[in-house]
Amino acid sequence: MLIAGNWKMFKGPREAEAFVSAFQPPSGVDVVVCPPYASLAAAVAAGLSVYAQNVHWEREGAFTGEVSAEMLLELGVRGAIVGHSERRQHFGETDETAARRAARALEAGLAVIACVGETEDERERGETEDVLARQVSVLPNGERIVVAYEPVWAIGTGKTATPDVAAEAHAFVKTLLDRPVLYGGSVKPENAEDLLAQPDVDGALVGGASLDVDSFSAICRTAASIRS
Ligand code: 13P
């Protein structure tokens, strides 16, 4: 079971350091935090397992605003998120670029959390499985990649997928890529148990609730109690 906190564009180095110093990961669950680039070094120094929120597919070059796997590894970062829906919606990320990022990160020795998920319109039109198939089929396989099923309509909206909806999507993703699948989208201490108890839910990618030490700790303790 893996619980990952995606801090998005929150917490500069001082706040990151304060969070990691105050946070005690419970045993029986793998926990990582994903701070913004500017706070990666502070979070690594404070002693937690740290992933970045993105990674580029080249080692170096004229790619303003991008960061390579080698640079992350040099900082002590152990993995990266790729293909988050906010990157797809606001920054032109595509299935192909997400897949290139994932392949290069794995090759360099980083772990990868590859995000997939349908929009509300796509779900209403009955296209969920087509969208997931398109997004997952291009991803590389490997021991260090996990998928995060994050239905776009559940991100930051307070509308969580029901455990049944999540379980169905997770089972479908696993028919395409036989790797662990995290659920993401309005995970909170109050709904974590129902979601994480589903057999194909192998952890969570937590946004808003990962910014607060108490709520992130509560979610991590719930995960530890379910599968340990
Ligand atoms: P929220 O938990 O804030 O809905 O965000 C989910 C997410 O996008 C994690 O990557």
Would you kindly provide a written description of the structure presented here, covering whatever features stand out?
The chain has 228 residues and is α/β, with parallel strands linked by helices. It contains ten helices and eight strands. The longest helix is centred in the last third of the chain and has 15 residues, at 213-227. 44% of the residues are buried. The structure holds 1,3-dihydroxyacetonephosphate. 1,3-dihydroxyacetonephosphate binds at residues 6, 84, 150, 155-156, 184-187, 205-209.
Question: What's a concise summary of this model?
Answer:
With 228 residues, the protein is an alpha/beta fold. The protein has helices at 13-22, 40-45, 69-75, 85-91, 95-108, 120-124, 128-137, 163-176, 189-196, 213-227, and strands at 2-6, 30-34, 51-52, 79-82, 111-116, 145-149, 181-184, 203-206.
Mean pLDDT: 96
- Ranges where pLDDT stays below 50 over 5 or more residues in a row are none
- What is the string of helix and strand elements? EHEHEHEHHEHHEHEHEH
N→C terminal distance:
9 Å
The radius of gyration computed from the alpha-carbon positions, rounded to a whole number of angstroms, is 16 Å
Total DSSP helices: 10
List of distinct ligands in this structure? 1,3-dihydroxyacetonephosphate
Number of extended strands = 8
Biggest sheet record: 8 strands, parallel
Question: What is the 3D shape?
Answer: globular
- Give the class from helix and strand content and strand pairing: alpha/beta
The strand line-up of the biggest sheet is 2-1-8-7-6-5-4-3
What helical percentage do the residues reach? 40-55%
Strand content: 15-25%
